[in-house]
Amino acid sequence: MAAKRGILVCGHGSRNEDAVREFEALAATVRARFDGELVAHGYLEFARPVLAEALDELREGGATDILAVPGMLFAAGHVKNDLPSVLNSYAARHPGLRVRFGRELGIDLKMLRAAAERVESALPTDDISRHETLLMVVGRGSSDPDANSNVSKVARMLWEGLGFGWAEVCYSGVTFPLVEPALEHAALLGYRRIVVFPYFLFTGRLVRRIYGYTDRVAARHPGIDFVKAPYLGHHPLLIETFLDRLREIAEGANAMNCQLCKYREQFLGFEDEVGLRQESHHHHFEGIGTGSGNGGGHHHHHGGLDHDHAHTHAHGHHHPYPRADHPLGPLSMKGKPIPE
Length: 340
Fold this sequence. Notes:
- By secondary structure, the protein is of the alpha/beta class.
- It is built from eight helices and eight strands.
- The model is unreliable at 291-317 (pLDDT under 50).
């Protein structure tokens, strides 16, 4: 008897209801594109349904082969560690169930075209040329330097492709430089306009903070035109990339790039993280926050199985970020007001 396929759209989750609604819209689009198939969505934390509940829905619907794809931009801790840990633990508790995990959206030409359209949509029609404009690309920020470096690659490709005079990169948290000091630095470079582009999938508290920091720095530099570009959102090319990742799982062409993985190789500055145990601590926040059916409860899932996308090493979680004390990094914000 042929295995019945199910599709799981995996999100991080958010306490922000708008962010949850935007992710649900993505899941609804996937469901519409696979009309007649079993499709569910779930979250690591802060929203319902949690991943185990979504997996229950698929399994109870008869699915025995589940394609799980992360709705995340880059492969940092959530993609390399948390999601595989939860999914593999669930599969281990249900013999006969196959869960195949997809790769992140990543550096992709479709994603870059979507980003370019978001940036260009924000540019005013006036006498300030692109050569007089600096592009500031804002990433989420991670304790994984591989994921952080991908934001720089996105920025370079947008810079070169769209012809801006200069480009810089900053992050909303965890790593450096943070948004406010990066914008202050950019304001000294002599450009007439600075375009701030959050390279984020959905809205939420962090996007609001990015725009808040932009307003704060703009007030100190009235001679510069600060422009807030929209985040990626429900862009059609983002949806197409997401569907590409599902096809990759189904076709067996689902390989992650592990060359710069800090859990696999002795990456510069992160040498002591090789081989850390794979486990997720997000169960402490499962279902807490917002989303339909939120009851404030949570489930406990632990596991150390390897995930099946060419990563055969174990990961840990919440390892101390070794650059937290950088003067432009997260500890520099202690005691300072955060715009909301």
